[in-house]
Design a protein that fits this description.
The chain has helices at about 1-50, 65-70, 90-105, 105-130, 140-150, 160, 170-185, 195-215, 220-230, 240-250, 255-265, 280-290, 295, 300-305, 310-335, 335-355, 360-365, 370-390, 390-440, 475-485, 610; strands at about 445, 450-455, 465-470, 490-495, 505-510, 520-530, 535-540, 550-555, 560-565, 570-580, 590-595, 600-605, 625-630, 640-645, 655, 670-675. It is α+β, with helices and mostly antiparallel strands. The strands form 2 sheets. Strands 1, 4, 6, 7, 8, 9, 10, 11, 12, 13, 14, 15 and 16 form a 13-stranded mixed sheet that branches. It has a 3-stranded antiparallel sheet with strand order 3-2-5, with helices on one face. A hairpin with a 5-residue loop joins strand 11 and strand 12. Residues about 1-30 have low confidence and may be disordered.
């Protein structure tokens, strides 16, 4: 029995040995699948946790001339012309066109695309980091998680995520990253793959190279970036010229883009480029240096304002210690080709903007740092890795610094998104008001509607923070159309005398109010609150006379034809219809007192008609208009007292009812409809 059993034992040993390679072969896949799944969830948590509120934002700025262009062209025409635009980016327009076919111009869906692209790019950056810094089949997932997190929370990416028209930037970045990932999977797979799978990865990479510049002109940088990544993988020996030549050949599809780009009609021809002067290049470069040194240049805005310093000098001085810290980190880790990759990636990413774009464009476009943020994520993760090497206390210090940096980035992004939300409330309120006026057959006029919004104190010394809402008054009709599907007549007026001073800066549209109009016009004025901007009714010109007669006749040749007070979502709306039957009276204005059930004053809304912009002294004889006011703090109101008084002497103007009886205290009583 013992002799008979020995062969059985010997026979089973090869089976055990045969299975070991299978276990070893699957270990890398199993080991990478779990962290990759966690990475996807972590990136989604960061992206939607920080930027999720953008789903409630409306369209902004360039959206109001790009969406009409999109609407006016077929899907095929988007690839044949850019006439009327200053760029040829048909891939982004194709994406929008397909979305329009499915959901129309749904703002939430359009913003969701930006969010998903940013999330996807964060996953790719983390995976690429773990792969490029890998040792054999051992992915460097901790480094990948740190780099991906720094990328997702890079402070200057807020514009590329929050603004629909900036979708080109995360879109072409996604194509560049996919091109590199596909190239790497085709030629440097961790585990052996068949030739068919390698060809698929290679073909997908070439397709992404071709499509990248059709999303944005900077997509042409995919070729030098791919060569850089290939070069950086050398382990100290010179990389094979065949490898570099192969990576260089990956730029061949860009020729197709160039030929088409040169032929497409655009507002400035086929994209003529003029090299910047040296001072402009220097300013542009310093702006991008500020972005690269963001953990320390974060204090540059405060220093500039606190000590009245030049922003360029402050930025340069603060950037020096940041750059020194990055160099120290690379030196501590040991210089190699791979350690040069983040520096060269960042330099190549911003090269075209430094050389060709004007300073005003660069300083107003933090989204242009999105491609460079990949290299910057690598740089700062390298510095943190170098700091963490050497003991538990160093790792703890690196962790604390990383947490502080991420909190700083989140705070900055949230501050910018808060401004977007405030500006967005103005756009949505304006659209509602303009559509309501159009349905009444009236032209809408907005007084002091914001063109842009910015913080009172900038975080960074260089560049423009905040948001451009509407590029000009001529785009107001497109703003309404983009959100309602209706083309309406909307105009802007600017009256500096009634401008408010909210806890942020804004710039109003328009050149000045001129109320000598004949057509029916609904006038709205813009009210600025701490956390919102509302377009409220100010009055209506060209109204018809009320059939009910006259409510009160005043001694100065003025008649109050009608008066109502109704609670709305915005507050207590007061409508007063006035008519001037004599010469315009000087120094006469309106008082509106809101009373409670005991006759006590709750609030008042005194001032000239049309939000204080159209005094009676400017009225031509025979003018009739409806003056509208919104009283915010009017809870418990039951009645109004309305009348006229001399703004110089304070004396009230006598008022008589329709039957000739004098109104007590020269005040007309108007009941409040509804209660709050």
């Amino acid at each position: 029995m013992t002799e008979h059993g020995l062969p059985i034992t010997v026979y089973r040993l090869p089976i055990t040995d045969y299975r070991l390679p299978i276990t070893d072969y699957r270990l890398p896949l199993t080991a990478n699948r779990l962290p990759f799944t966690l990475l996807i969830l972590w990136a989604a948590l960061l992206t939607f946790g920080v930027y999720g509120r953008t789903l409630t934002f409306p369209f902004f700025s360039d959206d109001f001339f790009q969406l009409p262009f999109l609407d006016a062209h077929s899907l095929g025409a988007l690839w044949r012309t850019a006439e009327g635009l200053f760029f040829f980016r048909p891939l982004a327009f194709t994406l929008w066109k397909l979305l329009y076919f499915v959901v129309g111009y749904d703002t939430a869906v359009f913003h969701l695309v930006n969010l998903l692209l940013h999330w996807f790019n964060g996953v790719l950056v983390a995976w690429l980091t773990a792969r490029l810094w890998a040792t054999g089949a051992a992915y460097q997932w901790p480094r990948g998680f740190v780099a991906g997190t720094l990328f997702l929370l890079f402070p200057f990416s807020y514009e590329g995520v929050a603004w629909v028209a900036a979708v080109m930037h995360p879109q072409f970045l996604a194509l560049i990253l996919l091109a590199i990932v596909g190239y790497w999977q085709a030629f440097y797979p961790v585990t052996p793959t068949g030739s068919r799978r390698a060809w698929l990865w290679g073909g997908a990479s070439l397709l992404c190279v071709l499509l990248a510049p059709f999303a944005h002109e900077n997509g042409v940088l995919v070729a030098p970036l791919l060569v850089l990544v290939e070069w950086a993988q050398g382990d100290g020996a010179r990389p094979s010229w065949r490898r570099l030549a192969r990576a260089g050949l990956w730029s061949a599809p860009l020729v197709c883009w160039l030929l088409l780009w040169r032929q497409v009609p655009a507002a400035d021809g086929a994209g003529s480029l003029a090299l910047n002067a040296w001072p402009t290049m220097g300013r542009n470069a310093l702006y991008f240096v500020q972005g690269g040194a963001y953990p320390i240049t974060w204090a540059s805005g405060w220093l500039r304002d606190r000590f009245a310093l030049d922003g360029f000098w402050v930025t340069a001085l603060l950037a020096l210690p940041a750059l020194a810290l990055l160099v120290w980190g690379q030196r501590r880790a040991g210089w190699s080709r791979r350690s040069w990759l983040p520096w060269l990636w960042t330099a190549v990413s911003v090269s075209l903007a430094i050389l060709f774009l004007p300073w005003l464009h660069v300083s107003a476009a933090p989204r242009m740092l999105m491609l460079a943020s990949v290299g910057l994520a690598w740089l700062w993760s390298d510095a943190l890795w170098a700091l963490a090497a050497g003991g538990h206390w160093r790792r703890a210090l690196a962790g604390l610094l990383l947490a502080a940096l991420l909190l700083q980035n989140v705070w900055f992004a949230q501050a910018q998104l808060a401004l977007y939300a405030i500006g967005g409330s103005a756009i949505r309120s304006g659209v509602t008001a303009a559509v309501a006026a159009h349905e009444r057959g009236e032209t809408a006029v907005f007084i002091n509607f914001p063109a842009w919004i910015a913080p009172q104190r900038a975080t960074y010394a260089l560049g423009q923070e905040g948001d451009i809402l509407v590029l000009g008054p001529e785009l107001l009709p497109a703003m309404v159309w983009a959100h309602s599907g209706q083309w309406v007549d909307v105009r802007a007026a600017r009256v500096d005398a009634i401008r408010q001073q909210p806890p942020y800066y804004t710039g109003p549209l328009g050149d000045g109010a001129a109320w000598g109009v004949e057509q029916s016009t609904a006038v709205f004025h813009t009210v600025y609150f701490t956390d919102a901007i509302q377009v409220q009714p100010a009055g209506r010109l060209g109204v018809a006379a009320a059939a009910s007669g006259v409510l009160a006749t005043f001694a100065e040749g003025l008649r109050l034809l009608a008066g109502t007070a109704v609670f709305t979502a915005q507050g207590l709306q007061v409508d007063l219809t006035w008519q001037l039957v004599g010469p315009p009276p000087p120094d006469i204005t309106v008082f509106v007192h809101v009373l409670d059930g005991d006759g006590q004053l709750l609030a008042q809304a005194d001032g000239d008609p049309l939000a204080g912009t159209y005094p009676f002294s400017a009225w031509p004889a025979g003018t009739m208009l409806q003056d509208q006011r919104v009283v915010i703090a009017a809870e418990g109101a039951v009645a109004l007292q309305v009348g006229l008084y001399n703004r110089v002497t304070g004396e009230r103007v006598t008022a008589a009812a329709a039957d000739g009886a004098a109104w007590a205290d020269a005040a007309v009583t108007v009941p409040v409809i509804g209660r709050r």
